[in-house]
Amino acid sequence: MNKIKIFFVIYFSLFFLNMILFPAQDEDAANKWLREVEPIITKAEKAVFESLKTDEARARFISYFWKVRDPNPETPYNEYKQEYYRRLNYVKSHFGGTRSDRGRIYIILGEPAEINRYSGLSSVVDCELWTYYKEGRPGLPPVIRLLFYKKEDYGNYRLFYPGMDTALDIISPGYRENYRSPSSAYKELRKIYPELADATLSVIPGEGSPYMPAAANSSNHVFAQIFTLPERELSDSYLRNFSPIKGKVDVTYSFRKMSGYVLVELTRNKGYTFLNYSIVPDTIRFKKVANNLNYAKLNLNLRVENLDGRTIFQQERNLEIKLDEQNKEILAKKKMMFSDFIPIINGEFNIIIVLSNKTTEEFLTHKEKVEINENVVPVLCGFEAVKIKSNRFMPFVVDDYKISVDPRFIFNKNETLVGVILAEEKPNIRLISINRGEELFRVEDIVKIGRYFLFRKPLLNLKSSNYYLCIATEKGEVYRKIIAVLPFLIERPQCFEWTEASSSIGAYDFEIATQYLNNDQVQKAIEYFNRMPKSMWTIKTIPIIAQAYYRAQDYKKVVELLERKEAPENYSTLLMLGNSCLELKQLKKAAEYFEKLRKYGDTPKINRVLGAISLSLGRREEAQVYFNRAKSLENKQKK
Description:
By secondary structure, this protein is an alpha+beta fold. It folds into three domains: 84-229, no CATH class; 258-497, Sandwich (Immunoglobulin-like), CATH 2.60.40; 537-601, Alpha Horseshoe (Serine Threonine Protein Phosphatase 5, Tetratricopeptide repeat), CATH 1.25.40. It is built from 20 helices and 25 strands. Helix 16 packs across helix 17 and helix 19 (604-616) runs antiparallel to helix 20 (620-638). The chain is globular and about 90 Å long.
């Protein structure tokens, strides 16, 4: 009996001693820490932390979590941790927490270099324009401007997404009925608040146009880079120190990224090379807006960059999807596919595709390098080839055939593998089993149709497996993809695609010319501009055509174009006119245009130019007024 008492005394003594030495971190403390670091913890880190069973393991994890983020391990303080909690406290006290749009941006990017506030104004809703410089942040442009606004002048500030939101959203509700379109709202806004107006076009200063926002708008790519910045800056190797997670940890997608499949292929049709692309997200999340109605606002953005990182072309599409519960479930099983195309010039480019879901603020991003020249053999491969009668331009079309593609490259056994190849001689097409080595299946059904070869291969007799689809021409192997033949039936995605009328050829010449211009191939740009029908030389196109002639130093042509009655009068056109007149020694006209430029900003530089012009014209007193004005403005800037 005494032994039993002694045992319980020792047991409970050890139990309470353990409680004193290792106090329990209840689940509330762990959840509190998770809430604190939610903006920067990755999906993989969160999964590992939630799997830990002991307080000791959680404490060790938290120590590693901050250690891998410490920029200067040799110092006694963790500067990253200190700065993070400073930002966190600031966000809580000023923006209502990290779930707000301003709070999330502040946590990730820190304090803006500059904030311009537009509040209490009758014509525009309350806005804030935040300016950031790159300062070592990977993937971001040198300068970005993020606009926050109160929708309908009510509630919390929300992030403005150029391309999805427009200048009309910035106009106060009582004034909005005065404007018929976003471009008219932008034009009026530009007169009063030029920086605010430009921020509605792009987060990158100087990009975008109220008439052609897709031409230079790369905002969605920048947003994707911002929201994934905490993950891209992190080395996740320390997670291997924690054993509860077995197997491979997925560190590819953060909580703000979608996963999916993207296909990019080239075709040549009617004298143009087209870049076709298709995207299948794994899931699209909807917001319930009524008892039986689900809503998602999507934006599809394609950007073409040259290898120097310069954007040469961009295309943007917006799509609003409204589904009842039944159709939502159907599409969730089938998935959705979005397909589009653009004409493209020869060269080596990076293709960046971003599908964003504004409703849930999720992004699917894809980057791929492509080479386009006369030696590249275009190949399209899919599960169906349909002869079309329409003369409209469509994605994944070659002459009279449209190829139904699926970026996942999965096939049912009852389907036929089909494709087209632009080649001079009959190609050699094989299927090689990946699992069984060199087991070959040759494609024999190959028919020449016009410039292309059309091939078909029924899959019914093939074993369910993965195969290399290999295509070789007289130039060697030109195509290799992995396809999967499945033992079960899969449904094809519901396809949303954009098509264009046959009359779009003039517009394609303009797009090609713009690409050449952005790629510094000015003479090729002028060649394609001059192929356009004169009916397309409008208020939208003339300023861009004038840029080509300006860069070609044909100043006489610039003045001729921009002095037309249909040419717009804005900052860029006035600047080209003023400089061109200076080059042509037309000083009086140059002075008129630079004087008009002052309404866009009374800067020291413009006053010095006007002073120099006045001096050349013998107007010394007038010149002195301009020079004094320039000096006064410079002193204000220094202060």
